[in-house]
Specification:
By secondary structure, the protein is α+β, with helices and mostly antiparallel strands. It has a single domain (4-202), classed as Nucleoside Triphosphate Pyrophosphohydrolase, CATH 3.90.79. It has five helices and twelve strands. The strands form two sheets. Strands 1, 2, 3, 4, 5, 6, 7, 8 and 9 form a nine-stranded mixed beta sheet that branches. The chain is globular and about 50 Å long. The protein starts with a helix and ends with a helix.
Length: 205
């Protein structure tokens, strides 16, 4: 049975991020009017946005990071991290990190493509890579990096009414960001920003 939400997502994603499409500027600074410019000297990184093809509807897999990490500790995130010198291109970074963090085998991921790099206020230039995976999945949370693994329906994330605008204090200044409450989870910051950017790109108002 075809999932109509996923089918429409794939059609729109291919049209928006297919070959020959110009790079668009995206990042935390685009969401926050108090930060009109991205940070300089950004460090390259990549994340994997795994879309799980369940028979009753696609979901997006996310992780809850441990409190001991040096960057974005305790936050909800996509599997991913900084680009290593041995990574030939951003999908390699995303797939390698996903395997290290949650045990997702690279060969089980069907890559749809990548979004435009997303500049973060913490100094990273993140390339989000979108891939499809089919259950059943044999995953495990690397205790050094991940506290928990959970899924959010793709349809929920592709609905603009589920996004909230936040204003919070960060490093002594008020900043703006997005948040996506879902059940007991509170998705905010960079992860919510990437998802909001993806939604607005595929479903422009």
């Amino acid at each position: 049975m075809t999932d109509p939400v996923l089918a429409e997502f794939r059609r729109r994603f291919s049209a928006a991020f297919g070959p020959g499409k110009p790079r668009l500027e995206t990042g935390d600074h685009m969401l926050d009017l108090q930060r009109p410019q991205p940070p300089k000297l950004l460090k390259p990184a990549a994340v994997l946005i795994p879309i799980v093809q369940h028979v009753d509807g696609a979901t997006v897999l996310l992780t809850h990071r441990t409190e001991t990490l040096s960057s974005h500790a305790g936050q909800i995130a996509f599997p991913g991290g900084r680009t290593d010198a041995t990574d030939a291109f951003s999908p390699m970074t995303a797939l390698r990190e996903a395997q290290e963090e949650i045990g997702l085998a690279p060969q089980s991921v069907h890559l749809l493509g990548k979004m435009h790099p997303y500049a973060t206020g913490s100094g990273y230039d993140i390339t989000p890579v979108v891939g499809l995976v089919k259950p059943p999945l044999k995953l495990f949370a690397n205790p050094d990096e991940v506290n928990a693994i959970f899924e959010v329906p793709l349809a929920f994330l592709m609905s603009g009414s589920n996004y909230q605008k936040l204003e919070l204090e960060w490093k002594g200044a008020m900043r703006q960001t997005y948040a996506i409450p879902y059940e007991t989870h509170y998705i905010w910051g960079v992860t919510a920003g990437i998802l909001k950017t993806l939604y607005e790109t595929l479903y422009p108002s």
